[in-house]
TrEMBL record, chain A:
Record-linked InterPro entries: CbtA_put
Keywords tagged on the record: Membrane, Transmembrane, Transmembrane helix
Transmembrane segment boundaries: 88-114, 121-140, 160-180, 187-206, 226-250
Name this protein carries in UniProt: Cobalt transporter subunit CbtA
Automatic annotation (TrEMBL), chain B:
Native organism: Variovorax ginsengisoli
Domain of life: Bacteria
Protein name: Cobalt transporter subunit CbtB
Membrane-traversing stretches: 23-44
InterPro entries: CbtB_put
Keywords, ordered alphabetically: Membrane, Transmembrane, Transmembrane helix
Amino acid sequence: MMLFQRLIGSALAVAVVVGSVQTGVQLWQATPIIHAAERYESQKIESPAAPAALSTVPVQAGAHDHAHDHAHAAAPDWQPEDGAERTFWTWIANLLHAFSMALLVLAVMGVCLWRGTPVRSLPLAALVAAAGWLSTHFWPSLGLPAEIPGMDAARLGSRQGWWVLAAVSAALACGAVAGLRSPLRWPAAAAVLALPLIVGAPHIAADPFAGFSAEAQTALRALDAQFVQATTWIAVSFWLSMALACGLAFERWLRPTLAQGFGGNPVVTPTLEPKA
Amino acid sequence: MTPSIRTTAPATGSTEAGIARSLLLQLASAAALGLLVLYGVAFAESPLAHNAAHDVRHVTVKPCH
């Protein structure tokens, strides 16, 4: 079987395990907070003239002309019904998210093997997963912390751009530390890590909860603090289960093929022919 | 002790390099597919993708609406 097919199959197996565990953890820890925030979201005081000005007019302090996309005023787009349907799509999205991350983790582990790493599969997966957590959770969260539904924020495109900048910077820093030999790799990694912080994450000048009553603001701030804490632990559980599942899948389905193709690796003991 | 592939199919240096290059290409393809799927789940602005993956985008701390 081709390596690519093995990679897809391994990532799918990892995705089913990690994505399903994530859905369970989220239903328990995050969904109640999202639902609570959405109940307040419908009480938001919106300007009726907002849809025409959507995202082209800069958000001004105090003024509330930033329409909230949840409403999608023009034509009602499909969205899953609350309950089983919404849970089902959350599960699908979690599967796809875990699948995408598993492909990246397994590919990076493969490159490490090509570079001749002697590290065994499970610790190697843990190292790559730690880099994944740093790049796709911790570093972007420093500038753009988790948000509950209903909060105002800077323009979506600029936040997505900054998110990608933070993630790519952290990934490059990890790659430099792991892959380069020169002692200069440490200052180089620090400089690359600092770049998104120097650029600065996009934020609005106004209060993100300005569109709510005083009572709702107090409740939403508490929910937001809870959500930041919940998502922190959910990310830890995601990357721990990702490390475990990718380590096992890599050892079983990918390492033998890769080790053979890259000219053998002293650590690998092929399991095809058990020695008597 | 040596893997059987070495004895049954003695490979020249150039084919070994070719195999390694092919494996690296397949690793890169898998990574590219991973980035594409990640874009669809976490960043695509299509309302359908956004609404289906809404809760996951919030929980995984991606910028959402």
